Amino acid sequence: MEIRKNNDFSTDGDLLGSVLTVGHFDVIHQGHVRLSRVARDFSDKKGVKRGIVLIDELFADASGFRPRETRVHDCLKHLADFVVIATANEFRSIFEITRPSLILQGLSKFQTINNFLSQNNDLIESFDCEVRFCSTSKSSSNFQTETNFFSSLKRFKECCISLEINFKNLITSLDSLRERRCFLLGDTLIDEYLFCDFSSMSGEAPLPVFNVCRSEAFVGGASVVFKHLKALGCNMRFCTSILGADNLVSDLTPRGEEIVNTDHIPVMRKRRYISDDQKLFRVNFPLYDANLFGFSNRSKKISKPELLNNYRDFDPDFVIATDFGCGFFSSDLGTFLELIAKGKPDHTYIDAQITPSRNGFDAFMRCGILFPTEKEARETSRMLNESIDSVADYFLDRSSCKKIIITCGSEGVIGFDRSSRSETTTKVALPALNDKAIDLTGAGDAFLCGFAISDIQGNSFSESLVMGSIFAGIHTSTIGNSALQRSEIDNYIDHLVNA
């Protein structure tokens, strides 16, 4: 890849008709990669080169060019054939030299290029150039994300047809949810989102500086399950600690009668910094540093007698345990779940967070249905390179669990069911319904909700996996942990039926 400053840019004939992508590229993220793929597809068809016009007011004319040049080369070398570092005022000369056939511009910097185009329309028309404003954000409804959405939907629909999914059963399970009672256990977290705009490059080091424009906070962890099920009409009892999240939880249940506040440890806060709808990084405020929240740490955990008393008093139809790795977990929780799983083996759903460090599998090997991620399952089984079938057999052979559902992120989900009398294992694999997810926070919890709602109704294993995928697909289409609404689920099912 060749890097040039604008004043070194000559009239090379091989650059004529190039595809140019314009942007700041301060933090390289997946949105830029998607733009480069559009550029690559177009340039391959036309037989022209791909170029990036890097808008850089600070470094374009600076004498100390080398550090910036090195960083640009490392970050952009796979995205283009050449890069031109220039200011917005130098666009015209670049376009006159390359006479591009296509200009790609991210919507996040829409105004920069739009101002240029409005003032230089004669130039663009003179060489028959196409201009596309395609967002680098996963959340915008541009031609790329719409195409991805409907292609994912059709691929998912094909799997549903092959599995003979009856979508009416999914609707029925939602209708009957108001008659169900769910006993939920786990940690409440606070998920914070700080939305930032790029300001400048730091004078202290070659690092970008961002200004926080706005922030949003959601209850997370097991509270995500509570929000979804309650919004859909399920009767709930939720054992958790809300120390530090009282104001957020009060919005979920104003009267508070559905929450058993164990009040044993401060709520963990996860703060995510986002620019142009892309996550930059996340900061966890750990429990042991509870002074950050103005609370003193507490070591008391909810006991098995307390759990049993609440459980028997509520008499639930099904039990969900999730997100208990931040303080809720104790040996009492493991023995409690083992005890109730004996009475409701098919209706105890556990996001076991089975990692070697937590020894989670040993604690839950006699409990209900497990929902590990592929990473958790492989690390615990120490089968990093074996087939996913072998990983599932590892857990099913060593436990009384009859079902294990392994979530694989953007690759979808694979379920293994050994509940038949023949003890044979049924394997069902589904692609991700939303493989261009905006925010994966809480996706596993949403999937668990959907699966449990369908499974408790007596739907088939495949239908329950489909329902879980629908819940996860909707949840990951926006930023934050908003409660799923019945209308959203009905619309998604309608899209699937008519895809």
Strand order of the largest sheet: 1-4-3-2-5-6
What separation lies between the terminal Cα atoms?
42 Å
Question: Which fold name is given in CATH as the topology of the largest domain?
Answer: UDP-N-acetylmuramoyl-L-alanine:D-glutamate ligase
Number of helices: 17
Give me the count of strands: 19
Overall geometry = elongated
Provide the number of structural domains. 2
- Helix share, percent: 25-40%
Low-confidence stretches: 58-71, 136-149, 288-299
Averaged pLDDT: 76
| Rg from Cα | 26 Å
Content of β-strand: 15-25%
CATH class of the largest domain, anyone? Alpha Beta
Assign the CATH architecture of the largest domain: 3-Layer(aba) Sandwich
Provide the structure class. Answer: alpha/beta
Q: Major sheet: size, sense and barrel closure?
A: 6 strands, parallel
In short:
By secondary structure, the chain is of the alpha/beta class. It is built from 17 helices and 19 strands.
What would you note in describing this structure?
There is one protein chain. The chain has 499 residues and is of the alpha/beta class. The chain has 2 domains: 2-133, Rossmann fold, CATH 3.40.50.620; 146-189 and 220-269 and 297-498, 3-Layer(aba) Sandwich (UDP-N-acetylmuramoyl-L-alanine:D-glutamate ligase), CATH 3.40.1190.20. It has 17 helices and 19 strands. The chain has helices spanning 30-46, 66-76, 91-98, 110-119, 121-126, 143-162, 167-175, 222-231, 246-252, 304-314, 331-343, 360-364, 374-381, 388-397, 443-456, 461-475, 486-498; strands at residues 2-5, 19-23, 50-55, 82-86, 102-105, 130-133, 181-185, 188-201, 208-221, 235-240, 259-261, 268-275, 278-285, 318-321, 348-350, 369-370, 403-407, 413-417, 426-430. The chain has a 6-stranded parallel beta sheet with strand order 1-4-3-2-5-6. It has a 6-stranded parallel beta sheet with strand order 11-10-7-14-15-16, sandwiched between helices. A hairpin with a 5-residue loop joins strand 17 and strand 18 (413-417). The model is unreliable at 58-71, 136-149 and 288-299 (pLDDT under 50).
